[in-house]
Here is the input.
Amino acid sequence: MNPDKATKAYLNSQKKLSKKLNIEYELITSKTEKELMDIILKLNKDESVNGIFLAQPLPFDSHKIISYINPKKDIEGITPFNLGNLIYNKSYFLPCTADSIVRILNSFTKLDGKNVAVIGRSVIVGIPVSILLSNKENNATVTICHSHTKNLKDITINSDIVVVAAGVPELLKKDMVKPDSIIIDVGINVENGHIIGDVAEEVKEIAYVTEVPGGVGEITSLILFENLTKTILYK
Ligand SMILES: NC(=O)c1ccc[n+]([C@@H]2O[C@H](COP(=O)([O-])OP(=O)(O)OC[C@H]3O[C@@H](n4cnc5c(N)ncnc54)[C@H](OP(=O)(O)O)[C@@H]3O)[C@@H](O)[C@H]2O)c1
Here is the structure.
């Protein structure tokens, strides 16, 4: 399979970071679902392999493929086992991007009682970050938005924090946000050879916006490698 441009950019940054950290990194590609499943089963058994990262989106049934990954090597925290434990607030591996967003927010604001709009309901970003933000450690009140949400602007303009994970350039505009609110731009889009997020540049005039590239994605990659080190301690 040929990864899209955004995925290619992410894989490249992973490769560079693993080289810096002296970690062996191998990019394996497959052409069919069967081939991919066989590769995962082999990696599960291989004791020299600590972590498995699956580049998405996949042209196959993602749930089926992800279910094959050994949860102990699931450094992305996306297997049904680890995501199920997330609901109990007992996951050993949190989904990296969701974890990254929550760590960024906790580093400069109190989430308790805040109103958060999350745009996007994907299994790897939107839903897990909504669960994490509304758990009893963070205590935020979350509204999950998606492509069927009516009056998105009414929700975002009344939110203290907006997490945008839609993959739509300039989805969030200046007239949709509250002054001095915090905007977490998760989007990675490639336009004219440049990586841009989901938030229009003009939003920075009135709100605090994380950078793309250099914001959530960078912390996500670091968490991925943190999870890799945690595989050694997994019992
Ligand atoms: N920085 C990082 O570490 C990182 C990690 C992963 C992904 N990403 C990036 O984050 C973005 C989202 O990734 P993903 O995997 O979550 O994508 P995804 O699976 O395509 O999900 C996108 C979500 O956005 C919603 N959406 C799309 N257009 C919308 C609109 N106009 N209004 C409201 N909601 C809308 C979709 O709604 P429906 O459910 O109704 O279709 C869907 O829930 C992508 O740009 C991706 O490259 C970044």
User: Anything to note?
Assistant: The chain has two domains: 5-93+219-233, 96-215. The pocket of NAP is lined by residues 6, 97, 119-122, 124-126, 145-149, 152, 165-168, 171, 186-189, 216-217, 220 (CB under 6 Å). Helices lie at 5-20, 33-45, 62-67, 80-87, 96-108, 126-133, 152-156, 216-230. The chain has a mean pLDDT of 95.
